Amino acid sequence: MPANWGYVIAAYGIAAVALFGYWRHLARRARALTARPRAAVPQRTTPRTTS
Amino acid sequence: MITRVLGWLAALGLLAGLAAGFGYAPPEAVQGNVQRIMYLHVPSILTAYLAFGLVLIGSIAYLATRRPRWDRLASASAELGVLFTAVTIVSGSIWGKPTWGTWWTWDARLTSTAILLLVYVGYLMLRGLVDDREARGRYAAVVGILATVNIPIVHFSVKWWRALHQPSTILGPEPSPIDPAIGLALFVNWLAFTLLFAYFLSRRIEIARLEES
To answer: Could you tell me the fold of the domain covering B2-212?
Structure first.
């Protein structure tokens, strides 16, 4: 049986790229979201009356 | 804090998995070294099953309670399930070339796994199409529940139809015939992939919460 190391390296290499790429995507997305300014919460300036 | 710990545990687990798969486990008697792809291929699909199981739980819980946290669990799990199913298909295809002589065949296991991937890609696309948060969660939950039907079809396809893919050796009814060293390496890698999944899931849910705030 030939060693077939090329196939083993290819499988692990592609998986590493996919998993590392996903990790980088999550890290970038989290950084972008924490850096953005929070949406301003609308504040009521005058008290609501029932009349 | 928990996410960070999970990340470090996953990294250590993956290193231990590589050491077990390439250093501790012997080459398989018939296939030789190419069988080491199994330490990537099998944990990937088991992790995908776990992810899709959580999609089911999140979907049912969302329909019952309408709490956004369950919808976040379902959507994050679906995304990860797609990732790990894709890794399974690609690694299986690479393993198939030297052992079966082909990158792909329309075998029952391979075809049903490809359908599984497409169904959950559809689930994620559906989520992208609906703007209203409540409606999106409701539609996705229904699809998330229905899509679970695919998991037993994938798992039992090698029993129900004549397939080129080998039958289950670890989740089958009979005691596993795997050599103990190979079984241990597989277990370590499965554990590492589960930790990696937990880490990714925790981060993805955090991001979904930030996106909604």
So the answer is: Four Helix Bundle (Hemerythrin (Met), subunit A) (1.20.120)
